[in-house]
Amino acid sequence: MKKAFGPSLWAFVCRFGGKYRALKLFVFWGVWGLALPAVAAPCGGLERVESELLANRCAERQGFWHLYLEASLNLPFETGARIALQVPGGVRFAASFGVVQRVYVQEINKMLIGMDTYGLQTGKIIEDFTQSFFVWRAQLEWRPLEKHGFYMGLSYVQWRLRGQVQASSMADVSTGFEASQALLQSTQYKVNASLSFATAEIGWEWLLFSVLNLRLGVGISKVIGHDIVISTHFQSEVPAEYKKQAQEKAGRASEIVHLILQQYNIAPSLSLGLGVRFF
Predict the structure, then answer these.
(1) How would you write 227-250 as a 3-class SS string?
(2) Is residue 186 a contact partner of residue 234, using CB atoms and an 8 Å limit?
(3) What is the DSSP letter of 206?
(4) Residue 9 phi/psi, 5° resolution?
(5) How far apart are CA 54 and CA 62, in angstroms?
(6) 220 — phi, psi (to 5°)?
(7) DSSP 8-state symbol, 77
(8) Nearest alpha carbon to residue 189 among 238, 234, 122, 226
(9) Distances (CA, A) of 31 to 5, 26, 28, 255, 258
(10) What integer pLDDT is reported at residue 58 of this predicted model?
(11) What is the distance between the alpha carbons of residues 4 and 126, in angstroms, rounded to a whole number?
(12) In a 3-state reduction of DSSP, which class is residue 11?
C-alpha cells in the first residue's frame, strides 16, 4: 500500500536530523508561510494609497480650472449675463454684459427726490435721459480656498446711456428767454454719456447638484469718471437768440448732472448670480 507523502517526509527528516530539529524546521516554515502574506499586504496597500493620493492630486489640479456661465443681477445697477474662467491658484477672470432696468432708475430717482437732492421735474428729465442703458464690466476675483465658497474681487464697470427729452420738459432749467410752446415742442435735447465705476466685492458661492452655481456678493461702488454730452436738435427753423439760449440750457443741464455725480458718487451694491459650472 502506498504511504502518504506527509508521514514519509516527516520520517525522512527525523531520521537525518532528529525529531527536535525537524519540529523547528516545520514551525519555521509554517510561521513564514503565514507571515509572508501579512507582510506583503501592507506593501501592496501602501502602493495603492500612494496611487490614490497621486490621482487625487491630479484631480484637484484639474479641479482648479472652472468655467462658469450665469445670469447675473447687480443692484442697483443691471441685469445681464456673465461668463467666468477660474485658473489654478483660485484666480478668476469674468466679464458681464447687461442693461439697467428703468425700474432701478425710477427707484433711485424717488430716493434722491425724497432726500431733496432735486425736484420732481429734474427727476423726470433724468428718467427721459436714460431711455437706453447698456452696461459692461470686467472682473478680477480670487478664491483662496478651493473647497469653500468665499471669494473677493475688483471690477471695472462702464455705463453707456442715451436718451432724449423735449425742451418743454426742461422748463425749470431757466435761461431767461420766453419761448413759445411751438418752439419748445420743436426742440429736443439728446444725451450721450458714459460713466465709469470701480467696485470692490466680497461674497460666497455654493455648488448645487455638482453643476449649478449660486453666488451672492456685497460690495461698494465709486464713480471714477464720466463723460456727459447734452446736445440740442431743432426740428424746424428757430430764431438765433432761442437757439443760443437752448444751447445754454443744455450746458446748464450738463452741469447739474455733473454736480449730482460729484455729490453722490459712492453706492453699495448687491450681486446675485445663478448659472452652470461646466467643469
Answers:
(1) EEEEEEEECCCCCHHHHHHHHHHH
(2) yes
(3) E
(4) -65, -40
(5) 12
(6) -140, 140
(7) T
(8) 234
(9) 21, 8, 5, 98, 93
(10) 47
(11) 110
(12) helix
* Amino acid, single-letter form, for residue 277: R
Q: What nine digits make up the cell of 12?
A: 525522512
Contact 105, 135 (CB under 8 A): no
Phi/psi of residue 276, nearest 5 degrees: -115, 135
Does the N-terminal peptide bond of residue 76 adopt cis geometry, omega within 30 degrees of 0?
Answer: yes
Element (H, E) at 81: strand 78-87
Q: Judging by beta carbons within 10 Å of its beta carbon (0-12, 13-18, 19+), is residue 189 exposed, middle or buried? A: buried
Q: For the chain, which residues score pLDDT lower than 50?
A: 1-6, 10, 13, 31, 35-36, 38-44, 55, 58-59, 61-62, 172-177
Q: What is the pLDDT of residues 141-194, one digit of tens each?
A: 999 987 889 999 999 999 888 877 766 665 544 444 455 566 666 777 788 888
User: What is the domain partition of the chain in residue ranges?
Assistant: 1-61, 64-277
What is the number of other CB atoms lying within 10 angstroms of the CB of residue 270? 15
167 and 187 Cβ atoms separated by less than 8 Å: yes
Fold (topology level) of 64-277: Porin (2.40.160)
Retrieve residue 150's grid coordinates.
468665499
C-alpha separations of 11 from 6, 17, 31, 104 in Å? 9, 10, 21, 103
DSSP line for 54-65: HHHHHHHHHHT-
- Which single residue is written with the C-alpha cell 482648479? 64
Cα–Cα distance between 279 and 277 in angstroms, integer? 6
Q: CB of 96 within 8 A of CB of 82? A: yes
β-sheet bridge partners, residue 200: 154, 220
| DSSP E strand boundaries for 168-237 | 187-208, 212-234
